[in-house]
């Protein structure tokens, strides 16, 4: 009975920490300290230790503790895969280690563990759920494997479409896959006719995608109008953190479009360097937008 309570206590601790991580409120809360006051030191079970290491891995909002998640993975894989619940937890642990690497911007290692999770699910005939599929596609995009990401979206679209928030994010990501693959017409067909049902952050992603599509089509004036229209939105609304990031990035887009149309000369190369430096500064000071798809697209264009 003590083993059961110890494991349950650690499991609930992980659930709390994971929720706090995604809501980015962990540092402001003391509830987890209360949860940890129960002492099960003398009745530690492998599962209790596993859940506690998972909790430690995601105890901060912005990054993850990879060594803790690696310990959790080692613990769960020390148990036999005979039990379906243990087998499922092993699959999730592989995905969680991939997630930990992804949160730390180590995309090559993240991809390795998501691939292992996918192979594990096939070997043991386990469902590769929508969260795993979404993160797997995200990492594939971070590694510039856009065709592979589209294949994951195609194979798992029914599951990804069940939740509204995940479906909205997946729609944007599919659109950007086609942009990066040089297929602007296909990308354009994926932009909704009305963005009103979408949350504001998703709307901004689509606005930047629309600008990129115009640029890829060679419709530079249309791209400029799209940037100007986006900037006008900020004149009518009270700014907050994310909107400030979008506004700053919009200004960088406008500078890029104007620079693109300028005649080649020594001054243009100097301005290009300044714009690259400005984008680097933006990434450092606007962490909420530093590695997003609109930023990645602009980086690619400035490197061409």
Describe this structure in words.
The protein is mainly α and 304 residues long. Helices cover 73% and strands 0% of the residues. The chain folds into two domains: 1-128, no CATH class; 200-304, no CATH class. Helix 5 runs antiparallel to helix 6, helix 7 (130-142) packs antiparallel against helix 8 (146-155) and helix 14 (241-261) packs antiparallel against helix 15. It has helices spanning 2-23, 31-35, 46-57, 66-77, 84-103, 107-123, 130-142, 146-155, 157-160, 164-180, 184-189, 200-216, 220-235, 241-261, 266-285, 293-303. The N and C termini lie far apart (63 Å).
Tags for this model:
2 domains, mainly alpha, 16 helices, 304 residues, disordered N terminus, 0% strand
Q: Into which percent range does the helicity of residues fall? A: over 70%
* Mean pLDDT over the full residue set: 85
Order of secondary-structure elements: HHHHHHHHHHHHHHHH
Q: Which shape, going by the Cα principal axes?
A: elongated
Distance between the termini: 63 Å
Unreliably modeled segments: 1-7, 14-32, 34-38
How big a fraction of the residues is strand? under 5%
Report the C-alpha radius of gyration, rounded: 22 Å
Q: How many helices in DSSP terms?
A: 16
- Derived structural class: mainly alpha
> Main sheet?
none
Q: What count of structural domains?
A: 2
The count of DSSP E runs of length 2 or more, i.e. the number of strands, is 0
């Amino acid at each position: 009975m003590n083993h059961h309570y110890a494991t349950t206590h650690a499991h609930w601790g992980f659930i709390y920490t994971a929720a706090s991580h995604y809501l980015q409120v962990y540092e402001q809360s003391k509830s987890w300290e209360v949860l940890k006051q129960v002492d099960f030191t003398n009745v530690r079970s492998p599962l209790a230790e596993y859940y506690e290491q998972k909790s430690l891995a995601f105890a901060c909002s912005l990054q993850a503790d990879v060594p803790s998640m690696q310990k959790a993975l080692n613990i769960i894989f020390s148990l036999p895969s005979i039990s379906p619940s243990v087998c499922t937890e092993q699959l999730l642990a592989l995905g969680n280690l991939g997630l930990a690497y992804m949160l730390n911007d180590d995309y090559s290692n993240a991809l390795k563990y998501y691939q292992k999770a996918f192979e594990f699910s096939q070997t043991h005939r386990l469902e590769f759920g929508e969260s795993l599929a979404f993160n797997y596609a995200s990492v594939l995009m971070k590694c510039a494997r856009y065709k592979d990401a589209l294949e994951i979206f195609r194979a798992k679209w029914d599951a990804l479409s069940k939740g509204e928030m995940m479906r909205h994010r997946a729609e944007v990501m599919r659109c950007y896959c086609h942009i990066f693959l040089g297929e602007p017409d296909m990308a354009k067909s994926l932009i909704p006719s009305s963005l009103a049902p979408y949350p504001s952050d998703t709307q901004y992603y689509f606005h930047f995608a629309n600008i990129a599509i115009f640029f890829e089509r060679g419709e530079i004036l249309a791209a400029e109008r799209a940037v100007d229209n986006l900037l006008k939105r900020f004149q009518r609304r009270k700014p907050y953190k994310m909107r400030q990031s979008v506004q700053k990035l919009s200004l960088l887009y406008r500078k890029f479009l104007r620079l693109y149309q300028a005649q080649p000369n020594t001054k243009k190369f100097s301005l290009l360097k300044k714009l690259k430096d400005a984008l680097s500064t933006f990434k450092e000071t606007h962490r909420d937008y530093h590695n997003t798809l609109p930023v990645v697209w602009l980086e690619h264009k400035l490197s061409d």
